[in-house]
Amino acid sequence: MSRGQGTALITGASAGIGAVYADRLARRGHNLVLVARNEAKLNALAARLTVETGVTIEVLRADLTDEADTSRVEARLQADDITMLVNNAGVAVAGPTIEMDPERLEAMIRLNVVVATRLARAVAPGLAQRGKGDIINIASVVALRGDQPAISVGYGASKAYVLALSEGLDSELAPYSVRVQAVLPGATRTDLWEKGGLDINALPQEIVMETGDMVDAALAGLDQGERVTIPALPDNADWSAFKVARAVLHPNLSHRQPARRYRRNSEGPSVP
């Protein structure tokens, strides 16, 4: 029987990170709405977790690359029983940008950026009105490594957007007691790698985290009040130091005049 945690909607729930979130949240007493394209896998997961946990589980088959299906998920997120969104659905397209199929690149950006934003936007007003709830956005450590994209520039850029979206939304929703957490996994053993054309077994195995460990760490971070959780980071003070360093820039990001080094005298060279 549910222990009154409300209902968590999880996208990309048929396998990998999404399926582990389903398992962990069900054991915490959340009812679930499982969203993915593979209905058979969703039904099998729902059947197992119903027996093991007793929570109520709804299967919502949806292809989030389809506009009508996305709208259906948005509508479900606006229901009063929703207390959590796990914005997990995403895809990676590997390779140099100049060699990338533009249609595949656009599809990745649509799913990782546009759909993630729309779903967060759909759930946020209801959570704010009820004064409680969580939005968990699955980003990636590549959001912090724009100069060294491990998969592709486009993938890293899409995850940098998810991080920025999460931090901004958290500021907006904090007055309503709604938490927004960005989770930044490193290399994690999921099928995202194979679908993206990469072999995770080719990576040094000491940097590859198992999916269960990653999700457990992310939920522990949420419990501890973290708004950005990097499961592999040994000392969260390093993230705090990063934020402080970033904040140092703020007072000088906008002025009436360009910085002195960009001004030129009448002869042309920059003013020293």
Automatic annotation (TrEMBL):
Keyword Cell membrane part of the UniProt annotation: no
Pfam family, one: adh_short
Swiss-Prot/TrEMBL keywords: Oxidoreductase
Residue span, Ketoreductase domain: 6-188
Keyword Oxidoreductase on entry: yes
Superkingdom classification of source: Bacteria
Molecular function via GO: oxidoreductase activity
Record-linked InterPro entries: KR_dom, NAD(P)-bd_dom_sf, SDR_fam, VLCFA-Steroid_DH
Family listed: Belongs to the short-chain dehydrogenases/reductases (SDR) family.
Protein name, as recorded: AraC family transcriptional regulator
